[in-house]
């Protein structure tokens, strides 16, 4: 009996060791050659993966850093082509840039490419990210002077046009990207009109209290901010933009319009793949393994970065979709580890979301998920000082904090989030605000906004009617 048991355990150990070796070679394909794709490739090599590694990217450029595009590049301080991401190590990978992925065959384990090629894989990482939501009227979108901002090429073209000194810039949408564009334009001395369908800038990401502060800030810097209005038409003459019409009946003259209506997740190529992929991203578990359309987790397809939506226990396991630099890096590293590790060694992606923005002379940073809240309190500083920390709570516990020029305190609030500390927070901050009372966070339904929140909590969205599979009777 003991000998048989020992032989069985020895066999299991041999299989486990062999499984590790098998997963450290073979073929891995990464679709998406931006931040998440690059960091995943590097992490795979750090994890000891020695097999074939291929990265597919639709853009012709090597991976580059996106945050500077709406900040330093628009200000003319950095050229768009100089925003490349530094490599942490040699990846020994095949880079297929300027090539679109057009389909996925999970049964045959093949990625279909726009050039007609097919890439076989043993493990696949989907890191296709997002693209800028275009202006809905294609004719108006084609007018000279109408821009979006997502890619390096977008930023280069827009920076060149701003350098030429347009008479007025119209920014459509006042989320973080739209607000950063408006800030750069004002710093350049340009006249700016911002049109926002919601009640205030940043309201979709941070709620009404922070939105009111942002509105005051923009107007104080000379922005012509128009809230609760939409742009109904872009006007042109001779193929060039001349102005815009608004839902309240007003009009403006403008020779540049930047459409900042949020992002579209790049999932169309997965439409016939059988994965749980749709407008809200590709659903995966906390270990970055993709779900199929029936909710069954796959074991050879992983997801990371802006295109992923995943459950997080700190936020009641709702599916988070994050467009954050730090999240893309952390999730890519978790995905890479789990792609080459046996089940017993896999780990979850549980990092607390963090984000930052620079606009109108202020440094805005957040931790947690402000949209996952029902109350908010100014815990430190004040809007009048333009130096504050707003803390968000949900059902009596701390879920997020947003700082304005007080980033040093965010580690303290991150700890409160991680430990589900009571809301409102108790004493602990050196310059806590006496008498500050919580108010409703007033986070609007993202469906009524013209731009998406930077952090979105997404529930179930049936992208297509499902056919129930029943065993034969």
UniProtKB/TrEMBL annotation:
InterPro entries, from UniProt?
A: FAD-oxidoreductase/Apoptosis (IPR050446), FAD/NAD-bd_sf (IPR036188), FAD/NAD-binding_dom (IPR023753), FAD/NAD-linked_Rdtase_dimer_sf (IPR016156), Reductase_C (IPR028202)
Stretches of the chain forming a coiled coil according to its record: none
Give the span(s) annotated as Disordered. Answer: 1-21, 428-456
Signal peptide region? none
Requisite cofactors: FAD
| Domain annotation Reductase C-terminal: ranges | 355-425
- Basic and acidic residues bias locations: 7-21
SUPFAM superfamilies in alphabetical order: FAD/NAD(P)-binding domain (SSF51905), FAD/NAD-linked reductases, dimerisation (C-terminal) domain (SSF55424)
Q: Which residues form the FAD/NAD(P)-binding domain?
A: 27-332
Q: Which UniProt keywords apply?
A: FAD, Flavoprotein, Oxidoreductase
A Pfam family that this protein carries is: Reductase_C
Q: What is this protein called?
A: Pyridine nucleotide-disulfide oxidoreductase
* Source species of the chain: Streptomyces hiroshimensis
